[in-house]
Batch of 4 targets.
Target 1
Amino acid sequence: MRRVDVVVVGGGPAGAACATGLVRRGLDVVVLDRARFPRVKLCGGLVTQEAAAALGLHEADYPHGWLWIDRFHFHWRGLRLPLPSPQISIRRVEFDAFLLQRSGAELVHHRVQTIERQGGGYVVDGQWRADVVVGAGGTACPVYRTFFRELGLREKGLQITALELEFAHEVRERDCHFWFFEEGFPGYYWYIPKAAGWVNVGVGALAEPLKRAQDSIWRHWQRCLAKLQALGWLDGEVPQPGGHTYYLMGLMGRPARVRRDGAYLVGDAAGLATRDLGEGIRAAIESGLRAAAAIADGGDYQLDDLPRTSWPALLRGLVRRRWWA
Ligand SMILES: Cc1cc2nc3c(=O)[nH]c(=O)nc-3n(C[C@H](O)[C@H](O)[C@H](O)COP(=O)(O)OP(=O)(O)OC[C@H]3O[C@@H](n4cnc5c(N)ncnc54)[C@H](O)[C@@H]3O)c2cc1C
């Protein structure tokens, strides 16, 4: 059996940020992920400047190239609010692999199934022993399932369901667009351009109200495509989207339930996406870094002050333009 200081389960932004913080502090870390990197992660790939800054990530250091989104357009009932707030559009397939490699941690391709408490530590699938285990496995995280599920951290009413597709297509519109509450949809449609001829299109909503209304997310996917085709931003055959579910941040009682002894939850495993836009990358990075600091330096691990909404970060972008340009 391999002995390490920390096993991180999941190599998305939360796991990569945590691994980065731990390796910098000299700990022996292994990251286990069921996917082979680079791997596709369904996501709009909008990263706020503040999220990139938390990781000390500069445009010049990023080998894949990112697209600066200069303006966001929020649509509601035919009204349009343009917001000039420069933020970053990346492709998750590139971004996640880059962050993981940059962390300097050992990455092992492995689907985690069982995590047992033994002595003062944890044994993962009978192959790794560590004092600390970090649950960074997203919505399906086995650390959450084993040690945290009974605590009721993720609220059913805050579950998001989404369909999304990122595909090669000429970029005909350089800004980012969100259409809210189209035909009673309890969420929004989005269009997000990427660098080098890719676009990202999706629809995401609260699952419970959608189900109560006996509405179908697929119907909204078709409406979204029709809208983009009518605008002339998309044409030709559009491949099938993928589906994913995750959780927005609850209002009460969150911090006390993200650490149990030597088990920590970070990112989507804890359900930390913002309540207005479902933005989760920033919280994934921030929680990963905080967990690393708490593990290595022995401090508290709390997420109480993580932003619950995205709009303040977008508004700050109005005054603080491209920080590193
Ligand atoms: C359609 C969609 C659009 C989104 N758009 C945005 C956006 O534009 N901006 C934004 O900030 N947020 C967005 N989000 C939210 C964002 O994608 C997540 O909050 C973010 O990915 C969370 O990162 P994470 O590291 O916690 O989890 P993930 O990125 O999900 O990583 C979890 C990792 O754990 C691995 N794993 C899972 N189970 C196991 C196991 N048993 N064993 C080993 N490994 C395992 C997985 O393979 C995966 O690599 C979007 C989400 C969706 C679904």
Target 2
Amino acid sequence: MRLQYLGKNHLHWCDRCHVPVLGKKCACRASAREVSITPPGDARPAFPSDIDHINSVYRDYFGVPLIPEGHLVVLNKVPDKDRMEEIVMGGTVVGAIRYLPEEKRWEPLPRPSAALYMNPGKKVVVVDSGAIPSIREKSASVLAPGLVAIEDSVREGDEVFIVDRDGACIAVGRAKTDAATARTMDRGAIVRTRKVKNATCIPGTATWDDAVRANEDILSRVEEEAVTFIRNVMEKHPIQTNVSYSGGKDSLATLLVTLRAAGPLPLLFADTGLEFEETYANVDDVANHYGLKVIRTDTAKAFWDTMEREGPPAVDARWCCKVCKLLPIKELIETEWGECLSFIGQRKYESFKRMKSPRVWRNGYVECQVSAAPIQHWTAMHVWLYIFREQAPFNILYGRRIDRIGCFMCPSSDWATFEYIMEEYPDLWKTWDDALNAYKEKHDLPDIWIEKALWRKRGDRDEDDTGSYT
Ligand SMILES: [Zn+2]
């Protein structure tokens, strides 16, 4: 697995304002300390629905929620088998949640600093004072002789808090045995302690408006840079100009800076026919709100025709981007304008390929289009704070735990997202399930092709990224 920062880590925390700051200095003039997060490092705000979800995962497991009322939380997606998110609060990672596709459940992975916020009632192991130094300093396992008490619900493989006799948290780890067996043991390891760096965690309440204020200068600076970039590119390419709009946050932020730099421009929307209703609604909302014309391609038929011929798109055979986005866009540009300049919400923090992409380019499939990325260097956090500052109408799917806007059945989605869509959007999912079943019958494929979602990947080829078209 490639583990690499796709840019500088901008995420810092102001302990006076209790907010994330995307630089070393908060607007309050206090210096902000860097928050150590796992690469690639494209952290984003947690919405109330994200916090409810995290709290329910922690409550089920430990008997109490992780996140207290009124605190700002930042999420950071971490490369994992399916889906894993680091949870930042009080200026440090207090834990994570990870989806286990085989068991169809989320698992909490707390850090010791989580014990500052929560007082776990379940999955707790109490150790004797003599055992504490080696556990704390050397991440030694909890051994049977050092065990004072173990809570009833602890099973082998469970995440547990290791606490002293007064209930203060010393470490976290994974149980190597269940509670009943542990009590009968007089030797051997009971918990494998997880090695975690010491972290400063300073809780305190704040709002996202506070965070916007704290980042005022930083946001003005990145905005200014983007505006200058847009004006320069337009000067160099005096052709019809538009903003590529997908209904996602990155294209919304791109639109906002473009409005500032160049005034109203038409929106270019590639309608794959596979968008969520909420996305169509957002495209209309944004167009109305800013009084912009929407030029759209309609490619639903192309998708289903190709699906019948080639089978469903897969991460290593993503024909959908070419068939549903690039080619129809090319055709539309050629008929409407001959050629054009499009501002696109591509960001380097999205992927390794995008990190290496130039800021102005022509896609090999769409040579009549000059693409330019004003927010190439922004993190998701810059994007969100900017959207909050502008009070722009963003897609409500973000508030419903869907953080990647696009075709609902994108093969690049994680399984956690699919499970969520099946549950929350059963009718929408049924259209896809029916299509998969029809293809399966016709080609005599086994049931697991659908059950285990084998359609998502065909071979061992690397992810196909022709679709660098946000
Ligand atoms: Zn501050």
Target 3
Amino acid sequence: MNDRQDDQRDGNAAARALVAGVCAGDRRALARAITLVESTRPEDAAVAEAVVEALLPYAGNGLRIAVSGAPGAGKSIFIEAFGLHLVQQGHRVAVLAIDPSSPRSGGAILGDKTRMDRLARDERAFIRPTPSAGTLGGVALATGEAITLVEAAGFDRVLVETVGVGQSETAAADLTDMFLLLVAPGSGDELQGVKRGIVELADLIVVTKGDGDLKPAAGRVAADYHAALGLMRGAVPGWTPRVERCSAFTGEGIPRIADAIEAFRAATAGWRDRLRAEQARRGLDRALADAIDRALGADARLAGLRAALEAEVASGRRGPRAAARALVAGLLDRDASGSA
Ligand SMILES: Nc1nc2c(ncn2[C@@H]2O[C@H](COP(=O)(O)OP(=O)(O)O)[C@@H](O)[C@H]2O)c(=O)[nH]1
Ligand SMILES: [Mg+2]
């Protein structure tokens, strides 16, 4: 056997062990599998792909919920309180994050771990706070694969925390069945502070921090959003977006939010498969762009050609369409000459 066949055999064995571990609900295998799909190292790609392909048939049974909102809106603390409520109801809860801006720093992980301390220690929950930094497309792909992995491991409620700014919201919406927008009273994220585009994505608006001194302000914010929702059409057939209030500190309102989510799940059951089919098609587009990026990056000559073409496009000497065609021609040429 040559080295390449040896590598392949080791890779197959590694993939089989991970697949068995994830299916058995082994948390360490699950964590390792997620690390693999997040990896940008070319040598991890084959095993990551084999693991995802093998687990795909076991995924799909979860309800996928995006939890978005401006920084400080109370997302992490809400997820802790809400996640604990869900596990008490008999669910198994996975928490993922989508944040292309944040490097995998100890600080970020520590911050979220302390905020979700009790949930993190619960057997019935699995928390993966901060994915590695990367392009939005790459991070979205990895988070989509992480959803497959946690569902295959038996987690039936998947919460995806976003950063509340920019395009990560759209990416999260494209990976989930339901979109929660969290807004806090009296902290500058009242109606005018939240981008209308994000409000339009929301299936459920959760006004947080409805306790103590903030309670009256929470009521006003809820009324404002209620009025604003009346002017918008919901994005989902069979579901009218609504506003709920809660306090993660006192637990007030948390059961109503769980009820609202179950109502959404029941009302949209027939539509969910179609939604996911659409999302999967868009996922293919993302994966295609990512695969082309990787293939170009893995070949020194093509990487050089890309850099040269980028400079030509930037300076207006060549159009993007012609440059892209030249790169694809370079890739096809490489594969045809067997140098892959
Ligand atoms: N009074 C009150 N404060 C809250 C509540 N939830 C969160 N907070 C406060 O909001 C801050 C930010 O919460 P966090 O969950 O980290 O926000 P994130 O950035 O959206 O994840 C926390 O440090 C708390 O002080 C709540 O239910 N009641
Ligand atoms: Mg947070």
Target 4
Amino acid sequence: MTQVGFRSPEQWEQMAKEQLDKGAFEYIQSGAGVEDTLQANINGFKKWHIVPRVLRNVANVDSSSTILGLKTSAPFALAPVGFQTIIHPEGELAVAKAAAAENVPYTVSTVSTYSMEEIAEVMGDAPRFFQLYWPNDEDIALSFVRRAEQSGYSAIFITVDTPMLGWREQDKSNKYFPLRKAQGLGNYLVDPVFQEKARITPDSDLEVVIKEVASRLFNPSLTWENIKWLRTKTDLPLVIKGIVHPDDAKLAVEYGMDGIVVSNHGGRQLDGSISSIDALPAIVETVQGRIEIVFDGGVRRGVDVIKALALGANSVLIGRLYAYGLTDGQDGVESVIAQLKEEVQTVLALTGETNVKSLQQVTLKSM
Ligand SMILES: Cc1cc2nc3c(=O)[nH]c(=O)nc-3n(C[C@H](O)[C@H](O)[C@H](O)COP(=O)(O)O)c2cc1C
């Protein structure tokens, strides 16, 4: 890796703003509505304060962890972020290589511009998950899951907070949606079941492909019954992404899920939804350690990772932070990850702990 010098999260964002066109940058940065939830995700962390312990020999700190059974170098992974070629031509391939080099799992989005197989190819044995936007056709959904099984993905993250796109005002005024620019088609283009159902061939007109994908991408009629069905079809761990209500967390346990992601999609779906960090404690209380709790939303610094873990999450996903780093390609993403890891180590030690597991004993005060 060519070392990119230190940049704060705000500097990464600024760099992306300067280098990307307005539509692409605002697609990444913005949230739904008046961005109340987007802001609450970030500001929510400020309400929590760590009460650190001292004189506990923190000379050797180990911030390695396991996420859904995979050994990782840090307690965080990369969130699914679609359409990464709007940020850099190498898109998902650059992110995949960076994640592999840093031994941090990468969650590949359904709407990746490179296919899940192409991404797997550059990752070798490195840890990866596949995120499913459940199409409105269960045969295609199952085909995606089979392909993920065959190309070495270790879990399926089913995103359930997106029965349709949120009310994204920036994108509406920019008339911007990456799919319309033929981005994010990688998994669909090569899928045999989609090809058959949509009568698509390698020679099909791109406009036709875009229309066929757009009409299948989301499934507003999805229910727990579909989840129950998928549970009988695959042995891969299933993780429900997009839970903020404790009753839904309880249902995820009852339906045999292996984990949940406490998430509001980075404030891009329901504006006015509770922030992720505010939703976390009641969910931890309900789940009682029966399944894994992954957390995302508003994580920008190492201290945010530590606070989420201290509140009971088992691991954390980062979204926009690495997306901004991708403006600098693989090196940028690697730098973001390396920097966050280092910061997590420092914060862990200053909290008075030497490993990630003991963080659940840390005292946090809400004020
Ligand atoms: C540009 C962008 C694209 C995203 N695409 C997806 C996606 O394809 N699938 C998904 O489940 N979540 C997607 N998300 C949501 C992220 O996985 C994650 O929940 C969110 O970014 C976390 O908030 P943060 O950006 O504040 O870290 C996307 C987020 C952003 C910013």
